[in-house]
Design goal:
The chain is α/β, with parallel strands linked by helices and about 550 residues long. The protein has helices at about 40-65, 65-80, 80-90, 95-115, 115-120, 125-140, 160-165, 185-195, 230-250, 275-280, 300-315, 355-360, 360-375, 390-405, 415-420, 420-430, 435-445, 460-475, 490-500, 515-520, 525-535, 540-550; strands at about 5, 5-10, 15-20, 155, 175-180, 200, 215, 220-225, 265, 285-290, 320-325, 380-385, 410-415, 430-435, 480-485, 505-510. About 45% of the residues lie in helices and about 15% in strands. The longest helix has 26 residues, at about 40-65.
Length: about 550
Amino acid sequence: MTALTGVGVSPGVGFGPGYVLAYETPVPAPGARHGGDAGAERDRATRALEQVAADLEERGVRAGGEAQDILGAQALMARDPGLAAGVTGLIDAGKSAARAVYEAFGGYREMLVDAGGYLGERAADLDDVRDRAIAVIEGLPVPGLPSRAAQPYVLIARDLAPADTALLSRDVVAAFVTEQGGPTSHTAILARAMGVPAVVACPGATSIAPGTPVLVDGVSGLVRPAPSEEEVATARNAASARDAVLAAATGPGMTADGHAVPLLANIGGPRDVDGALEHGAEGVGLYRTEFLFLDRTTAPSGEEQEAAYLEVLEAFPGGRVVVRTLDAGADKPLAFLPPQGEEPNPALGQRGLRLLRAHPEILNTQLAALAGAAARSSAKLQVMAPMVATAEEAAWYVATCKEAGLPSAGVMIEIPAAALRAADLAEEADFFSLGTNDLAQYTFAADRQMGALTALQDAWQPALLDLVALAVAGAVEHGKPCGVCGEAAGDPVLACVLAGLGVTSLSMAPAALPAVRAALSRHTREQCRLAAQAAMAGTSPQEARAAARSHLPGLAGLAL
């Protein structure tokens, strides 16, 4: 079988027999009805959903970290009152418990898919909860994977559910390969957290015969069934050489000629701190606080928030911690706020700063908690607003933060309008942080969750580099720092280009820090500048990347 190509989302090389996950819960027949005892049938459905929720929670506790957050959110799906009401109504109309669960979840699924964005990506999680509940009701085996194997295997699937992968480890799985998903899918998130190579959006992967030896390159996205011994040896040698280079690069981020480029970590909460410290993060460049707010029916108290913020601040004494105030709404709704009205296109709706301005009590409580945590720590706290579009919005946010006693307030540049008028925003904000994921989404009108649009989400798109350059220039004009906290910062080649464009710091998933540190340390600032100029002269992502690499000879040892 010829090699397949997908999107590499977790670096490294994995090799082992392919385990193709093809299990699908049978769809209950459309005409399936119960025998007349609606009460007993409701009890069956209720018990099944609770069993699934409890199992997901237990798996989350055992897994910890990001997996616990993800599985906890799935458990809430199983206990959702609206879904329960839908199931009950269908059973009362005569449907069997299994068919009622299937139809009720199907209705919600359509809503999520139509919403797109964050909610669209969660449709796969909803499917998993549905299938598990139906399996319990019908007395069928619950979907799952082997927890032990004679040797680590390459897990191949159309898509993977968090419940299946959360308890796996590198001792069990050598790599993940999926036909669906994207860089921000749960497969990608968990693979990076586990340190397991992963390739997503790989068409034809499930056609690989079970048991076939498979070689997976999580950087290039190459998936090679039945490779030769020489190919395996070459890939492993390259990976070993790369690991040696990464281990040799230590200390703060800087270029070969001593130009400092601080390397920071993107985190979702205190659970992620250990990984950031393990990989040498100099601080936090993006603390996603929405994980404190999502999937709950009441807002977190100021005391709860302050404790979570303080735990992170205390891990970086004297270091920088940049906190993004709540980025929710539209495609990430908050159950404790009233609906914002119909939003045909949630990605363009009431989210981020727009939602906070509509509900200032949420922002004021968060800012007070942040100020309280900062007063008890030696870390340098900075706060920034998501989804800022205009200078007026930036001015309002900065003034609100200063009133709360927070001296350093910046804005995220993730809307093209903000990049185009960056000089105006820099008059108001203390710093910029470029969110390249959303900036690409809005620049190319391409949903970041859709694997089919991966090419348009490529951070090497010259138009995206143009916007980065505009934002940096606007910051420089007013003497303000401009960092990057999107996935682009974690690409070692692109990190050099960003440094060449004048970006003042880079923040990324902790596992990406060693490779970026090594890449910067092998090139001078001038080499990075020339690489940036060459990349911006390209007319496609492929041209831009190739042109940049031609000016970065030190990348050879990194096997990127």
